[in-house]
Write a structure and sequence with these properties.
The chain has 15 helices and 4 strands. It has 385 residues and is mainly α. The two termini are 48 Å apart.
Length: 385
């Protein structure tokens, strides 16, 4: 039973802010005695929970802060996100038990810790769903009414960007709609369009990693629907009339046409930030209605992680031929259809693929998750004096 008591001693120390790894704790206890404790909960926390709390203690200590006791206890009692996942036992505590093989908590990959962190963050995001929306001001209500003298328009195209542009225009009194509107299709180089397609999918439904997202469509030889600009243009032409479709590659020209100073867009979310939202979306889907999930993620993680997460993900060199072929096809199809273009169609062509592609890194994603555990979305972020 000494292994169990040592594990409880380590858990108690972690709850109090310790950053000592398990093996060091056990070795010191064996050499010097002590380091044991009585159980303080109905079950010993799993290796993932204990390892995550230790990492959070390290993260907080580096910032000169302490992990609140309530947060530590919440982590120790947390479940594990992911179908078929369960707590992992600690090596040296009960190696004879049935079930998963015991592990060294500090040898666990970051992906395992992210399973616990994602479930906890999803709980926080879900908690914001019960927060009543602030009452709209008189100015906001006035802006929501469409002005008859504002030209009729709609914004279509890249979902992640189009949603944000529509919201920004409405906030400034330019509500889309009207009779026979002009459909402005937002476009960009295909590499960026693919990154935004994966971002929109990650917020809407969670889903696959960036690498799997690319591999599945490149292997099939076609674009995902969210990134198929030629298909989007045909759909807009069918709905609004081909003569009313404009391809937008220069947003300054779009601002001039709509009579606004500039066209704002969504917050920048790097590859690691999007991957965290993707991971949180899975357990969040069990807590809130499907239709509510995207909006909650945008309002919480999207807002909190704005500007974070590094650069956008990029397409690896192995799929450069597929990317270039699809971009050329897109440019040809749009040019052949004769849609007016705001900007230059050559901007649809992807930028050169670098030797070092950008994709989410579990360690960086975990660092973002640790920040959200220390400063959850349900509480104001602490601001240093």
């Amino acid at each position: 039973m000494s292994g169990q008591r040592q594990a409880w001693g380590w858990a108690a120390a972690l709850r109090s802010g310790s950053t000592t790894p398990w093996q060091a704790w056990a070795a010191q206890a064996d050499a010097q005695g002590g380091g044991e404790a009585e159980p303080f909960a109905g079950r010993l926390p799993g290796a993932q929970q204990l390892a995550l709390l230790r990492r959070l203690n390290v993260h907080a200590a580096a910032a000169g802060r302490d992990v609140p006791t309530a947060t530590a206890e919440r982590i120790l009692a947390a479940g594990v996100s992911g179908r078929g996942r369960s707590d992992l036992p600690i090596a040296g505590v009960d190696d004879e038990r049935f079930g998963p093989r015991p592990v060294d908590p500090d040898a666990l990959p970051d992906d395992e810790l992210l399973r616990v962190a994602s479930a906890l963050i999803a709980d926080d995001v879900a908690a914001t769903a019960s927060t009543p929306a602030p009452e709209r001001s008189l100015i906001d209500r006035a802006r929501s009414v469409r002005r008859p003298w504002v030209r009729s328009f709609v914004i279509v195209g890249m979902q992640w960007r189009a949603d944000a542009v529509r919201a920004e225009l409405v906030a400034h009194g330019h509500r889309p709609g009207g009779r026979r509107p002009t459909a402005y299709l937002l476009a960009d180089d295909l590499g960026a369009v693919l990154a935004q397609a994966w971002t929109a999918r990650s917020f809407d439904q969670g889903g696959v990693t960036w690498q799997h997202f690319l591999r599945s469509f490149a292997g099939a030889g076609h674009l995902p629907p969210r990134a198929d600009l030629a298909r989007m243009a045909r759909s807009a032409a069918h709905k609004y009339g081909a003569e009313n479709v404009r391809i937008v590659l220069d947003e300054a020209q779009l601002a001039d046409e709509l009579g606004v100073r500039r066209i704002a867009g969504p917050p920048h979310l790097g590859a690691n930030a999007v991957d965290l939202a993707r991971r949180v979306g899975e357990p969040l889907g069990l807590l809130v209605a499907t239709d509510d999930r995207p909006g909650l993620l945008r309002a919480t993680l999207g807002a909190r992680l704005a500007g974070a997460g590094g650069p956008l993900p990029t397409v690896p060199a192995r799929w450069e031929t597929w990317l270039s072929t699809q971009a050329e096809r897109t440019r040809h199809d749009i040019a052949a259809a004769g849609y007016p273009v705001l900007g230059d169609l050559d901007q649809l062509l992807p930028r050169p693929v670098g030797a070092d592609p950008v994709f989410p890194v579990d360690a960086e994603v975990l660092a973002l998750a640790l920040g959200l555990l220390l400063d959850p979305v349900t509480a104001p972020v602490e601001v240093e004096a």
